[in-house]
Structure formats: C-alpha cells, structure tokens
Amino acid sequence: MTTGAIYISPYNDPVIVAGQGTMGVELDEDLSNIDTVIVAVGGGGLISGIGGYLKTVQPKVEMVGCSPKNSCVMYESLQAGRILDLPSKPTLSDGTAGGIEENSITFEICKKNYK
Question: How far is it, in rounded angstroms, from Cα 46 to Cα 88?
C-alpha cells in the first residue's frame, strides 16, 4: 500500500541533527564551562547534533557516548573504522537500539569528534 508518506531518518538527516543540536545551544546558554556531556547513542544523531554545536563554542568539552551492550553498533563501527552491519539483541534502551544506515552522515561526525 502506498501512503505518499516520506521517510525521514531519525538520525541520518542534516536537519534532524541540527534540530538535536539545539540541546547543545541550551546547555551552552546555561553552563559556560562544560567539562563533559554524556549522551545516549543509537545512530549518532543526538550526539552529533549536541556535540557538533558544543565543540564549536566550547572546544574543550568532552563528549562521551553511551550505548547498550546489546546494541552498540556505532561503538563497534567506530572501533572498526567503518559502518558494520551487526545484529542487535533485545534491550530496554530501545531508543538507542539498531544499526546504522550505509553512508550515514553521523558516522563521520562521530568518527571525527567522539569517544
């Protein structure tokens, strides 16, 4: 069945990443000297948006990504230096579960900037 709906990735879209970056703006407005920000990571959109902004205005900020053990595809992909197609096991953290699309914009941002 065709609905006419357009698919927008929840992380692999520059407008989505920019929107998630507004949290970085809010953090910067409230805290002028941030040491570390800990962010949940699934496909990397949230940490790419927040960190992309914060690292521009507060370059010394350390961005730490957290993934569930049962679905740490971004972490394993970063360790391998390329996007991996890995299975995800069930996890309570369903918002951070799942794989990463091939050629994801967030992979390159995470590879460049985060642990």
Answer: 19
- Whether 63 and 47 have beta carbons less than 8 Å apart is answered as yes
The 10s digit of each residue's pLDDT in 67-90 is: 999 999 999 999 999 999 999 999
CA-closest candidate to residue 95, choices 48, 43, 24, 21: 43
Structure tokens at 100: 């990463």
Give the C-alpha separation, 34 to 60, whole Å: 8
Q: Where are the domains of the chain?
A: 14-113
pLDDT at 115 over 80: no
Q: What is the DSSP letter of 34?
A: -
Q: What is this structure's pTM?
A: 0.91
**CATH top-level class for 14-113?**
alpha beta
d(CA 9, CA 45): 10
Q: From start to end of 8-94, where are the E strands?
A: 36-40, 62-66
